[in-house]
Amino acid sequence: QVQLVESGGGLVQAGDSLRLSCAASGRTFSSNAMGWFRQAPGKAREFVASISRSGISTRYVDSVKGRFTISRDNAKNTVYLQMNSLKPEDTAVYYCAVRETYHSADAYYITSGEYDGWGQGTQVTVSS
């Protein structure tokens, strides 16, 4: 089973940028579609971005399109979330997720139930 560890969160001002990283253990990282979700206080966990195991296909929630970019480095077993032009409404705990169940190279997933493993989360706080 793949283990995930997120990092890169912090407290920033509106308009700033952050890059989240998710380091995965195991030798099968390149075989796994990956995703980022977030959960704000009192709200349900929300899909943010996903990337296929090939890295070719990506998908974003509308609220972050044009501001966030998901990418992966299979040589480093790491997936990234570059977050630019941050807004106070982006404040949340951000979770990395992995799909280990078999899937095609260009498939991506946008619901939490489609993922098999989760990291512990990293806090992102954006002040106005």
Order of helices and strands: EEEEEEEEEEE
pLDDT under 50 segments (min length 5)?
Answer: none
Query: What is the straight-line distance between the termini?
Result: 40 Å
| Main pleated sheet | 7 strands, mixed
Category by helix and strand content: mainly beta
Mean pLDDT: 95
Per DSSP E runs of 2 or more residues, the count of β-strands stands at 11
Provide the gyration radius in Å: 14 Å
The share of residues in helices is: under 10%
* Percent of residues in beta strands: over 45%
- Helical segment count: 0
Q: What is the overall shape?
A: globular
How are the SSEs placed, and which strands pair?
Elements lengths: L3 E4 L2 E4 L4 E7 L8 E7 L6 E6 L6 E3 L7 E6 L4 E6 L8 E8 L17 E2 L3 E6 L1
Parallel strand pairs: 2-11
Antiparallel strand pairs: 1-3, 3-8, 4-5, 4-9, 5-6, 7-8, 9-10, 9-11
Structure in words:
The structure is a single chain. With 128 residues, this protein is an all-beta fold. 0% of the residues lie in helices and 46% in strands. Strands 2, 4, 5, 6, 9, 10 and 11 form a seven-stranded mixed β-sheet that branches. The mean pLDDT is 95.
Which features characterize this protein?
globular; 128 residues; 4-stranded antiparallel sheet
Task: Give a short synopsis of this structure.
With 128 residues, the protein is an all-beta fold.
